[in-house]
């Protein structure tokens, strides 16, 4: 259910953040300036993109590997064994059917790899904004 409700909006947010980053880089290049990643807008866009990608990966994995209402059907579809999962959890994502972990090994590291930059850049946005306000930024133009 998580993927159904947050999948399409998450994909749109990810596309919009990517478009925003490309538009920022194109605008800076047209002004004959080097694109700056360490300014508040690109940092915020990177944070939004990483967070929406993490939501999409979690939604996909939760939809395919979480037991939901019919745990025996999840084990049947993924392993071919009609049994209820012995254990399952969301953080880290885990579902064990007949003693075998059915969630792929790449899911939890991918979630961590996407969530960490999202949190770091989200924390860096106010810092970058404060530094920008305190220092004189030369105007870059053609």
Keywords:
142 residues; mainly alpha; 3 strands; elongated; 65% helix
Could you explain how this protein is built, in words?
The protein has four helices and three strands. With 142 residues, it is mostly helical. The chain has a domain at 2-68 and 105-134. It has a three-stranded antiparallel beta sheet, covered by helices on one side. Helix 2 (40-65) packs antiparallel against helix 4 (107-134). The longest helix has 29 residues, at 2-30. Keywords: Membrane, Transmembrane, Transmembrane helix. The chain crosses the membrane at residues 6-22, 43-61, 110-131.
Q: Estimate the strand proportion.
A: 5-15%
Uncertain regions: pLDDT < 50 for 5+ in a row? none
Q: Summarize the biggest pleated sheet.
A: 3 strands, antiparallel
Termini gap: 51 Å
């Amino acid at each position: 259910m998580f993927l159904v409700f947050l999948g399409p909006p998450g994909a749109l947010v990810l596309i919009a953040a990517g478009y925003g980053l490309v538009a920022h880089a194109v605008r800076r290049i047209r002004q004959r300036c080097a694109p700056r990643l360490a300014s508040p807008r690109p940092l915020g866009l990177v944070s939004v993109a990483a967070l929406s990608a993490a939501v999409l990966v979690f939604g996909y994995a939760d939809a395919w590997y979480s037991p939901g209402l019919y745990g025996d059907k999840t084990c049947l579809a993924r392993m071919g064994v009609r049994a209820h999962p012995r254990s399952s959890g969301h953080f880290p994502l885990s579902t064990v059917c007949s003693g075998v972990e059915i969630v792929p090994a790449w899911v939890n590291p991918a979630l961590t790899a996407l969530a960490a930059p999202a949190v770091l850049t989200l924390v860096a946005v106010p810092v970058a904004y404060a530094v920008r306000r305190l220092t004189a930024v030369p105007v870059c133009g053609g």
